[in-house]
Amino acid sequence: MSFSKEFSTLVKIMARLRDPQTGCSWDIEQDFASIRHFTIEEAYEVADAIEREDFEDLCSELGDLILQPVFHAQMAAEKKHFDIEDVIRGINEKLIRRHPHIFDDKNGLSSDAVLDQWENIKKDEREKRALNRGTKPNEGLLDDIANALPALMRAEKLARRVAKVGFDWPDATGALEKCREELNEVEVEIATGDKEKIQGEIGDLLFSVANLARKCGISPEAALSNANAKFMRRFAHLEQRCVENNVPLEDAGLEILQGFWDEVRTRDRETE
């Protein structure tokens, strides 16, 4: 298969770049910690290409992302931990193991049932790994949720996990009321001027908003990402209107800028 040939070539290129005698000095100097942020960055660039629906760019960014596990696996192979074949074999086995409704009994399941099954299988896997290592499995329900996740995404995952044991509102109304409660507490602390307390209450508010999004079936990370994109587009309109009116952006003042902002908001509502 041409795919197998191309992937094999990529693995060989990475090994060549890491060769201590003839490789690239930058690649040789890297370790797991030093390229960790590149791995995260490449994932975000893939997400950005998807949001822009730029499929030529998406193809390129996916290539950059694929390079990351190959890079990590090459460094692991050098230390005799594992290699890229182990990585691929592992994900193949995991996908089959976590989809028994497809590869085993073939019982039809809803999306929600599939997610529940996935989480239960992951829990069993964690317990088996701990047993094989001679250690105790994570005792806390939330212990295995990665600290490195973006904060909003992690908030959603924390809340989703505890909801599995019934610690949740029955519908979005409870989450909405919690947001109102936290917003009131932010207002109280702003009046005190205590920045540490204000930070704590704003954190509680953001966590509650993430919960509200989850209860509405919306990803809070995606919602905020879309809001960021909308803000950038609208502010670009302000900049363009300042140019059209020969008004330097920094001299326009809030009243003029707000007027331009209202223009684009009105336009957006008319086109929705």
Quick overview:
Helices cover 75% and strands 0% of the residues. The protein has 272 residues and is an all-alpha fold.
Describe the protein.
The chain has 272 residues and is mainly α. It has 4 domains: 2-97, MazG-like (Helix Hairpins); 103-139, no CATH class; 151-218, Helix Hairpins, CATH 1.10.287; 222-271. 75% of the residues lie in helices and 0% in strands. It has 12 helices and no strands. It has helices spanning 2-17, 25-29, 32-52, 55-78, 84-97, 100-103, 111-133, 151-163, 172-192, 195-215, 220-244, 254-271. The protein is globular and about 65 Å long.
Low-confidence stretches: none
The coarse silhouette is globular
How do the helices and strands follow one another from N- to C-terminus?
Answer: HHHHHHHHHHHH
Helix content: over 70%
Give the class-level CATH name of the largest domain: Mainly Alpha
Write out the CATH superfamily name of the largest domain. Answer: MazG-like
How many DSSP H or I helices? 12
Q: Count up the domains.
A: 4
Q: What is the annotated CATH architecture of the largest domain?
A: Orthogonal Bundle
